């Protein structure tokens, strides 16, 4: 009889304790994965031996906990020659810095302009690997090299867009006078 009374008390206490527990909303426990910091009108300059090598401008920057950065309102990157003159520009509707890969990514209307060699590139996506000093894409590209227009899928170039290779070229043509400027 003592055994049943003890069992009954234990059962009653366990029901009482479990019935008082409050259920927690699982969504309240989710980890926040939004931006940790934001900045407006950023202007970053990278130099070497007091000579500007590249310059980055963006209207808005969002930094995340994993170190990735987003430029939701566009990004402009300028590359300078060894003598300090502006050589190449890169602009995109949206930009990203992927920290783990140490790579910048441009999306939307991506444009590269080599001012020295009169070369222009347009694509919907482009990557810039800072350490390897190269730009590349697997997307469709249009390259204007002087008065010649090249189209293709996939491109790899040095980061100044001086030397480039279109991986799957198609449909090239010479521009008519006044076209493409």
TrEMBL record:
PROSITE patterns: PROKAR_LIPOPROTEIN. It holds the Pfam family LptC. Residues 1-21 form the signal peptide. Keywords: Signal. This is LPS export ABC transporter periplasmic protein LptC. It comes from Algoriphagus halophytocola. The gene is lptC.
